[in-house]
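Hi R.,

Here's the chain you asked about this morning:
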Amino acid sequence: PAVVNSPTGGRTLVAHAFNYGRLLGRLDLTLNSKGDVVGWEGGPIFVDQNIADDPAVAQKLAELAKPIEDLKKRIIGQTAVDLDGQRTTVRNQESNLGNLVADAALWYTRQDKTQIAIVNGGGIRASIKAGDISYAQVLEALPFGNRLVQFDLTGADLLAALENGISKIEADPGESSGRFPQVGGLRFSGDLTKPADSRVTDVQVGTAESGFKPMDKTA
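And here is the predicted structure, written out as tokens:
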């Protein structure tokens, strides 16, 4: 574990057992009479087929999975083209799937007259092939329980958000941060040869139908 010492002299151990349930973390602590941590040992346990299922838990999981599997098979739409959700695309450049997700956010909030939508590219985790779109494919492409949040912001705030979004594009596309902004209701240009936080060169707000106008930083 990482050891963090507090200003009062206390000690906190911070441990994390990887992700997706692949590892089980074990940490044994030794405490003194005051409850202070004075020693520790342990390590990760790899969770694989060598660990037998608990029969009762396995049966309950199968029962709970049945309605979910039925839901995942439901067809909810169609696409005439492949929708690109590859990691190297959505974290580095505009994607047609990123555009669709951002435009869907605008469509859902149209009654509130929202103008723009931003979706971080790292939240898109799979592509969708041309043809019928199932509920399962949407869950694969957007697996996180994120909420759609609406708020007012100025043009200057929007510019800062876009600068942040393209501040971590790396030479190796696979290493770029997930903050790249997939957008709806706007279009922007940037110069990646410039230092981070000074790369955005043009921002326009609007739609293909209504046309685009230069963003007003004070609006």
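One quick note: Helices lie at 55-72, 87-90, 96-108, 135-141, 155-165.

Cheers,
M.
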